[in-house]
Amino acid sequence: MAKRPRSNNLSLVLVLLVVGGIAADATRRILQRPAVEAPPRPPADTSTSVAGASAPGPRDSAAAARVARVRARIAEDAERTYIMPTLKETDSTVRRWPDRRFAHPLRVAVLRRDVTGYREDFAANVTWAIGHWNGVLPIGFATGADSGEADVVITWASRLDSGKTGRTDLTWDRGGNIHHAFVTLATHDANGHALDSPRMGSLALHELGHTLGLGHSPVPSDALYPIATALELTDRDRRTARLLYELPAGSIR
Question: Is 43 domain-assigned?
Fold first, then answer.
């Protein structure tokens, strides 16, 4: 009876050894299996795409061709005019009255005002300046309009806040077409000196150039020089105005 427990213990040991061997063999088989390779990734797309980008269409090409023609025309007369300074003031936009206004002159209302320093001959100075510009361009001026229907309104102030003697405020559309102009002429300069008739004539000649779309000239003899002293239009004034009205209104960027 004392030998039976020893036999049972031995059997248990044998069972454990067999089970351990089976487990070890299974583990070895698993470790020896070749690793499963992941499927290859497609090569990265290094191209750059822009949403909405497309090849230039006929309309874009036509616009580019128009700008190229305008720039070429400007280059032809750039040295004999002040068209480049004019375009710099307008952020590279040709700003002028539309062609449809050529059939009738711009209606001008001259508003006489009871301000210090105003003289009745100042209105005559405006008429004199209009006479110098008329005939230069296919568009001209005609006085006698009522202020409510006028294209150009001219009036006076004793002095301007800017310290200048004249100011022209234009109204234009996105296409660069001018629709209205309001001109204010000062009866006194920045130092408080009263303007006389010749100086008012120079000032009116200068500001009317702005109403047509012209910017300032760097040449002192031109009517559109920042300090208005000219009593006649120069060839540069005329050439610049004519070139401006040869060009189509709008941006040349």
Answer: no
Burial of 142 (0-12, 13-18, 19+ CB in 10 A): middle
Q: What is the DSSP string of 120-165?
A: THHHHHHHHHHHHHTTTSS--EEE---TTT-SEEEEEES--TTS-S
What the block records as the tokens of 207 is 């500001």
Which pLDDT tens digit goes with each residue over 220-239?
A: 999 999 999 999 999 999 99
CATH code of residue 180: 3.40.390.10
Rounded distance between C-alpha atoms, residue 126 and residue 113, angstroms: 14
Cβ neighbours of 49 (radius 10 Å): 7
Average pLDDT for residues 129-142, to the nearest whole number? 98
Q: What's phi and psi for 154, nearest 5 deg?
A: -120, 130
Tokens of 32: 């020896």
What's the structural domain count of the chain?
1
- Going by the DSSP 8-state scheme, the letter that residue 192 receives in this structure is S
What would the pLDDT profile of 182-194 be if each residue is shown by its tens digit?
A: 999 999 999 999 9
Q: Is the pLDDT of residue 111 over 60?
A: yes
**Which SS3 state, helix, strand or coil, does residue 252 take?**
coil
pLDDT in the model for residue 26: 47
Is the pLDDT reported for residue 15 higher than 90? no
